[in-house]
TrEMBL record:
Record protein name field: D-arabinono-1,4-lactone oxidase
Family, as annotated: Belongs to the oxygen-dependent FAD-linked oxidoreductase family.
Keywords: FAD, Flavoprotein, Oxidoreductase
Organism name: Ambispora leptoticha
Pathway(s) this gene product operates in, as recorded in its UniProt entry: Cofactor biosynthesis; D-erythroascorbate biosynthesis; dehydro-D-arabinono-1,4-lactone from D-arabinose: step 2/2
Length: 489
């Protein structure tokens, strides 16, 4: 862990050039000139003013969960994890809301809402609860809720310290266009200080896990039926889950949430106890097996079948959870170092393209296996959301009723052949659907991705740039090579 990341600015900045910051998976490293961990809004403003005075660039990080290089900088690196205040507030227009500083964790937000009188919850959120508020907002993260969009679409307002060192508020009421730029800003407008989400009374979700044959279940009419009858839906394919390379025998893991008035059958205490048991399994056993698999790829079918049966999130019994516990079912996942690529494309009215792409991934996995190659040893999965109104969100669409599929593939960090395999799949999605990457996942290794996004996002970039230039005319926060080439090529 990096030591002393901030000191009184009157004494000058502390050089930490010998310190190296890494994201959670170890896929991105950062060696900035200075690293800061502000504790207050005033310290945050002082850092920005100092950077402006000294001609330095700024990039930020929170939990460090992103796989892409968005946080990398050679100059000033700001980690917002000490900004953790959370406050519930009732507003005349919006009802209950929650205001969270940039570094507040999703678990902290959940706990504050649940302990409120009356108990409250977020309507839609990421499946992991260790992430931080500003990180999920700035990258356009999303959950599995069918009628939800990105988490940023749940925002009412947010406060950002911009290049002048002052705090500016962006909101639906003040300026909807600027707000839709700020919802997913990639850190280019400034440093997020706080976010305000709309929330609702706590509700319960019935979680149903089924494991049908993949070839039987992956059909357009079945996908559409589940979409129309679920609150949330996640479909997971774990390769070689029957211990061989014949995908016709593999099952698909269908995780369905249905809203219910029935009381919860699993308590928060039970979930906490289970997490304490799950964590060491993930950290030691799963990581050890994956390390062995990456070293000896030929054993992948065997190890995959073992892990598939042992993964703690699988359940053969229906259960009812309070919404936060159901939503955040992927506890402990971020303990394991993984590679992850995710792209988003619009769903056909008959769901045929979602069906086709999952079968295509299975086919490519089998083809590689027959050649003695196993570049994907974790999962391929998808979620389906409504379109986002955030200008740079991967699921952005002017039509609020458009439906988007977020499809991702995941493997253990360091697995041979991953980059080539994942790039081939991504290019297929680009060619067929003009798919867009999730900014926080891996995408920069895909050949031709920079010129493609420059063209694909040209209209959105023009809209975004009008607002960005207003708040950061000298590009203090524009210190990322990939984004620079996408925006200006």
């Amino acid at each position: 862990m990096i030591q002393i990341l901030h000191q009184n600015l009157e004494n000058g900045f502390v050089s930490t050039s010998k310190k190296t910051w890494r994201n959670w998976a170890g896929t991105v490293t950062n060696n900035p000139q200075c690293i800061f961990l502000p504790n207050t809004l005033e310290e945050l403003r002082d850092i920005v003013k100092n950077a402006k005075k000294n001609g330095k660039k700024i990039r930020c990080a929170a939990q460090g969960h992103s796989w892409s290089s968005l946080s990398a900088t050679k100059d000033y690196f700001v980690i917002v994890n000490n900004l953790t205040k959370v406050q519930v507030q009732k507003r005349e227009k919006y009802g209950w809301t929650i205001i969270a500083e940039a570094g507040a964790s999703i678990k902290q937000i959940d706990d504050t809402l649940r302990n409120n009188d009356p108990p409250l919850t977020m309507n839609s959120m990421t499946v992991i609860n260790t992430l931080r508020a500003s990180g999920i907002v700035s990258t356009g993260a999303h959950g599995a809720k069918i009628q939800g969009a990105s988490v940023s679409d749940e925002l009412i307002s947010l406060q950002i310290v911009t290049a002048d060192g002052e705090l500016h508020e962006f909101s639906e009421e003040k300026d909807p266009q600027e707000m839709n730029v700020a919802r997913v800003s990639l850190g280019l407008l400034g440093i997020i200080y706080s976010v305000t989400f709309r929330v609702e009374p706590l509700f319960n979700l019935r979680m149903i896990d089924t494991f049908p044959l993949a070839t039987d279940w992956l059909k357009p009419e079945i996908l559409k039926q589940y979409y129309e009858n679920s609150d949330s839906l996640e479909v997971i394919y774990w390769p070689f889950n029957q211990g061989n390379i014949d995908t016709n025998k593999d099952t698909i893991w269908v995780k369905q949430w249905i809203r219910t008035e029935d009381p919860a059958t699993v308590s928060q205490k039970q979930i906490t106890q289970k997490s304490k048991y799950d964590a060491p399994i993930f950290k030691y056993f799963f990581t050890s097996v994956y390390n062995l698999t990456a070293k000896y790829p030929a054993i992948t079918p065997i190890t995959s079948a073992i892990l598939y049966k042992l993964v703690p999130q699988r359940s053969t019994k229906d259960a009812i959870y309070e919404a936060p516990d159901a939503i955040h079912f992927q506890s402990c996942l971020d303990i394991i170092p993984l590679n992850c690529l995710e792209f988003t494309f619009k769903v056909n009215s008959d769901f045929s393209n979602v069906h086709i792409e999952m079968l295509n991934i299975m086919s490519m996995i089998t083809k590689s296996a027959k050649q003695g190659e196993f570049p994907l040893n974790s999962v391929a999965e998808f979620r389906i959301n409504k379109a986002s109104k955030a200008i740079l969100a991967s699921g952005y669409d002017a039509d609020p009723n458009a439906i988007y599929c977020h499809i991702e593939i995941i493997t253990f960090f360091g697995t041979p052949g991953w980059k080539e395999f994942s790039a081939e799949i991504a290019n297929g999605w680009i060619e067929k659907y003009q798919a867009r990457p999730h900014w926080g996942k891996e995408w920069e290794h895909v050949p031709g991705i920079i010129p493609y996004l420059h063209t694909r996002l040209s209209d959105q970039i023009k809209t975004f740039e009008i607002v960005r230039a207003k708040y950061d005319p000298k590009k203090i926060f524009f210190d990322n090579d990939s984004l620079n080439r996408i925006f200006y090529n």
